[in-house]
Design brief:
The protein is of the alpha+beta class and about 475 residues long. It has 14 helices and 24 strands. Strands 10, 11, 12, 13, 14 and 15 form a 6-stranded antiparallel β-sheet that branches.
Amino acid sequence: MFPGLRDRLTLLPLGLSAARPVISPDGKTLIFSAEVAGQENLYSWSLEENPKKPPVAKQLTATSGGKGDVQFMPDSKSIVYLQDGHVMELSLANGQAKPIPVTAQYDVDFNVEKNVVFQEAWGDLNRRYYNPDFNGQNWGAIRTEFAPYIAGCQTEDELRSDINLMIGRLNSSHSGIGSPNHHGPSVGRLGLRFSRADYDSGQGLVVSEVIPLGPANVAGIQVGDRLLAVNGQEIGFGTDLNALLENTIGRRTVLKVATGNAAPRTVVVKPVDIGREKELVHRAWVEKERAYVDKISGGKLGYVHMEAMGSDSLKQLYLDLDVQNEAKEGVIVDIRDNEGGFVNGYAIDVFARRNYLELTPRGLPGAPARQLLGQRALGKPTVLVTNQNTLSDGEDFTEGYEALHLGQVVGVPTGGWIIYTGGTQLIDGSLLRLPMIRVQDIHGQTMEMHPRPVNVDVVRKPGETEDGTDSQLEAAVKVLLAQIGK
């Protein structure tokens, strides 16, 4: 249909990971979205023929929040898009964006809407579910079976509960229906944990744990301090601390604290969001595990942990390998409790690449050429540790590690939740999670419901966390030291 098309293709050097491209009606402008520093924004690229200057990606928006449903106006001079539920118009000439006031009133007949939602959910799965045999289920008969239950639903929660029961018949991971996203007030996090016993005995909010590098830690708050007030509002028995910390993320927040019987003092912090606090908790745990591996290996082995297969976890892997582990004889790679994502291929490359050249600048020690040229490669022996909570793309990583013979796998088999998934929004705002693409290993076996096996099976004993021990890491260290010794 398009002879010679391949020869006429041109790779645009955008310099960004472009998503959702849209070309203007006149064919002269490309609009795409890209994420930089965790924020999604819109960019343009000139498609003019024979331009006087080489085109560059031009950032059009610089705000937080998602942008979607981009459309050009007929004259190709401006675009409209949705940002956090608001309709926006942006002029390509001056880059100014303004909201378009849209107001509407409508009444929803739940008895009609619920059947539409039901048919949408069933229909999307009917058209797009990865297995046309529906895992041996009669999908049409299931719709007939559940229709009376849907007709009897009185609330949205009942509706979604029944639809989830219907979807559950497929016995498939990455499936289900969830409620619409409702954006409530953001609550700042201080990086503190409080003693339940002290609170119940009437002593107030006594700090029992300070998360390293969190706002409170940076401000000098310590275990045993009492939190007395937030921005001048005193804290009494029954005070909702979350309410006092609403809309404080990244803002100057004044705390009043007291140490023992000393006079109260004022501490200024900038609270973080819950996602950042979780990251700090995870990093503290990683440092503890790294120290544990260093100790039981006699300083010979390094340690990295990937909590997910996302871009942030991949960047952290690059940092950890560059800074912490290049000087070690081998590295323990831990992906226990990995919740999945999409970057397993990039992460595998780090461990699959082998060094074959060394570069030595004058007066400086030599180093592998790959690393000096900026290509991420470890080039050292490794052992992989997994458990039953290693899911989805974490399991893809495990399969790649074993298939490429990169080392031994220690722990327990993965969860068996291995499928490529997407989602869609239904008419009432509900979110439908939809398994769309089958994932198979190199032998053709469908990986969904087939956990990835291990070479050395080690089940952690109850109480190990409290004892400060980890039998899976101990076994991994023994395996890797033996491999290095050979």
